User: Which sequence fits this backbone?
């Protein structure tokens, strides 16, 4: 549900804009408000989860997410919808780390834990693709408001299952909450995410964009300095500098950067070049969603005990890179697009994404004390959000710039527009391909000489 809401409103946005009278300049806040609140508040959310108990935080997150979704669906003007989306992001920042933490604390046996993380990764990763499908179906056959209302029954179903989840003990105290860390991390992450969202429409050299990005980096640098000196840090730095966990964080960040650009370009290509309806364009991504689930639950599960985590992570990155490489061969008049290009690309990218997330979720949570489960889960979700925001902005701006340059040289004839648009997509996909290959090489370097977990813990165990 949390991942779904990052993409489900994309296709519904034109309908919502028309219904509520949003301006072109303001419509991005439907997406940006959610991303800013979610990304900026994840670390404090993880700490709150540990302090009040993960099951309790999970229940509060579900109720809040459902209520704010209902508020957004019933919105009578744009400001209400923006506020509701920010509220969704706030409760998602509590819900996401609580959900992962409950899995970490519940499944302690290595075999069961691997299966649980496979299911978790498959559902989570498939949610991004399914969000596009659901958005198209609900917008075309119901109303854009149901893209938000759908979260109410989903929250209710999850709430019914909460009593079945083992109760956990609170592992912290909010009276000693690291307030400077909260403010610096929230402001720094929000500044980075917002800077990325503004880079595509305004350009990376725009003064506002540069100020946001530089400011975000400075704030996060101050956050690191503050965490080194405080007695009760919001994010203990040992969580990030652990070699195996750091490898997982880097790989997930790069994968999300590449894949969110991939989803965007597939949606654009199928609708603007192939002439697919929003529903048909969304259904195209079902192949990717199914492959993601298979990669997470079957491929990763079978290989987990036969290969080291670093090998699985690097192989997953290369699998998705191969899928993107196929799409770099697309042209405006490509024949047999679906069987020759889209289908193998969807299978390879989906299998790579699912296998990586199942493996990375496991390795990102190794050797943790129970009290650290919440903040480590939040950090894991944080790198996903930063990667997705950065990748979407970077790849979209590259595609737009290449297309503009092409049209300057070839004119604005309809055939030139189509060719230039696809040329922009393929150049951006080459960059995404490079990110994933570079990520695989980096994983290889980071894992050289890396130590295996020195001890199994009650919270986590990694089998290499």
Assistant:
């Amino acid at each position: 549900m949390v991942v779904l809401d990052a993409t489900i409103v994309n296709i519904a946005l034109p309908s919502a804009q028309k219904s509520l009278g949003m301006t072109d300049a303001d419509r991005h806040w439907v997406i940006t408000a959610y991303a800013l609140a979610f990304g900026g508040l994840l670390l404090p959310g993880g700490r709150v989860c540990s302090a009040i108990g993960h099951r309790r935080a999970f229940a509060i997150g579900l109720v809040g997410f459902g209520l704010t979704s209902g508020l957004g669906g019933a919105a009578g003007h744009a400001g209400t919808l923006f506020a509701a989306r920010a509220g969704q992001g706030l409760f998602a920042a509590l819900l996401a780390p609580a959900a992962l933490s409950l899995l970490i604390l519940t499944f302690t046996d290595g075999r069961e834990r691997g299966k649980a993380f496979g299911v978790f990764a498959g559902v989570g990763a498939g949610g991004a693709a399914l969000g596009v499908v659901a958005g198209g179906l609900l917008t075309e056959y119901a109303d854009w408001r149901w893209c938000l209302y759908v979260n109410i029954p989903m929250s209710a179903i999850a709430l019914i299952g909460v009593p079945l989840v083992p109760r956990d003990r609170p592992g912290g105290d909010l009276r000693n909450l690291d307030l400077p860390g909260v403010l610096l991390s929230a402001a720094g992450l929000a500044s980075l995410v917002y800077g990325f969202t503004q880079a595509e429409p305004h350009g990376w050299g725009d003064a506002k964009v540069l100020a946001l990005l530089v400011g975000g980096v400075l704030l996060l640098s101050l956050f690191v300095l503050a965490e080194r000196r405080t007695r009760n840090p919001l994010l203990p730095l040992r969580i990030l500098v652990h070699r195996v966990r750091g490898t997982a964080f880097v790989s997930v960040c790069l994968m999300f950067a590449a894949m969110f650009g991939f989803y965007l370009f597939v949606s654009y290509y199928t609708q603007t070049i192939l002439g697919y309806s929003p529903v048909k364009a969304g259904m195209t991504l079902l192949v990717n969603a199914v492959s993601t689930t298979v990669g997470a639950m079957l491929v990763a599960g079978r290989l987990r005990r036969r290969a080291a985590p670093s090998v699985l992570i690097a192989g997953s990155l290369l699998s998705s890179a191969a899928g993107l490489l196929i799409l770099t061969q697309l042209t405006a008049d490509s024949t047999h697009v679906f069987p020759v290009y889209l289908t193998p690309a969807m299978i390879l990218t989906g299998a790579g994404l699912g296998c990586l997330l199942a493996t990375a979720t496991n390795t990102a949570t190794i050797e943790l004390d129970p009290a650290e489960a919440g903040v480590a889960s939040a950090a894991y979700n944080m790198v996903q959000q930063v990667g997705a925001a950065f990748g979407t902005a970077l790849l979209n701006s590259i595609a737009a710039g290449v297309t503009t340059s092409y049209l300057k040289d070839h004119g604005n004839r309809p055939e030139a527009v189509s060719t230039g648009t696809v040329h922009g997509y393929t150049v951006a996909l080459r960059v995404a391909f490079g990110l994933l290959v570079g990520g695989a090489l980096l994983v290889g370097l980071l894992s050289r000489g890396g130590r295996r977990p020195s001890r199994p813990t009650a919270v986590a165990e990694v089998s290499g």
Remarks:
- The chain has a mean pLDDT of 86.
